[in-house]
Amino acid sequence: MKTSYLFPYRFKLISGVLFAVSLALFVTYYCADKYLDFEYKTQVFAIVGDTGLLGDSDWFGWVENSIVDEILFTIVIASGLIFAFSKEKTEDEMVASIRLNSLVKATIANYVILLFLYLTVYGFSFLTVLNGAMFSQLLIFIVLFRINMYRFNKFASHEE
Amino acid sequence: MHHMKNNIKVQRAILNLTQQDLAERIGVSRQTINAMEAAKYVPSTVLALKLSKLFGKPVNDIFDLEEGD
Fold first, then answer.
1. ipTM value of the model?
2. Which of A16, A123, A125, B35 is packed most tightly, with the most Cβ within 10 A?
3. Distance from A97 to chain B by nearest Cα, in Å?
């Protein structure tokens, strides 16, 4: 069966490394935001951009913004999607079945966690939850799929 | 969850093929052959027909529903 919407296997290693590194940097950037002032400000086009908490909203205009997190997040999402949805070394229908199974479990797990956090985290701390929610499903899927593929390969590691 | 019995392992032995040989002949990984022989994976119709063609036996002679299905 053709599953042509998957990226080629040769992208797997490079996208995996990029995803791990950029995600670590992205999380570090958010956690260390208060302590280190690492930013690169420039003019960016915004569909909507707020100036401060009580500032006015600018629609369809240019606003000044530090783009370090934008660059990191672009790499996280692009490399994460490619790593998650590139072919396995030996791609067949059982791998497709394991992928689907992992995707269903990841989606359910993600929303159970998000619902729990929605009902238990309040105030500004909820922003952290929202930040995590931007990539949590992708991350959970990648982890689940890798675990399931590892078990699949290990289960059949020796011929009977 | 539906289960099926199969005799892929027997058919493979008749043709004197290893799991790897069979995997290459029908275009799947060796792990998939292993999972099918252990009845942990139910193949698609396409894959079942490929096995049928290779073994020269009808699908019904290779796969069988288990009790209760």
1. 0.86
2. B35
3. 9
Q: DSSP labels for chain A?
A: ---TTSBPGGGHHHHHHHHHHHHHHHHHHHHTTTT-----EEEEEEEEEESSSSSPEEEEEEEEEE-HHHHHHHHHHHHHHHHHTB--SS--HHHHHHHHHHHHHHHHHHHHHHHHHHHH--TTHHHHHHHHHTTHHHHHHHHHHHHHHHHHHHHTSS--
Q: Which residues of B touch A148 (CB under 8 A)?
A: none
In chain B, whose CA is at the least distance from the CA of A97?
A: B41
Q: What is the pLDDT of residue A57?
A: 77
pTM: 0.88
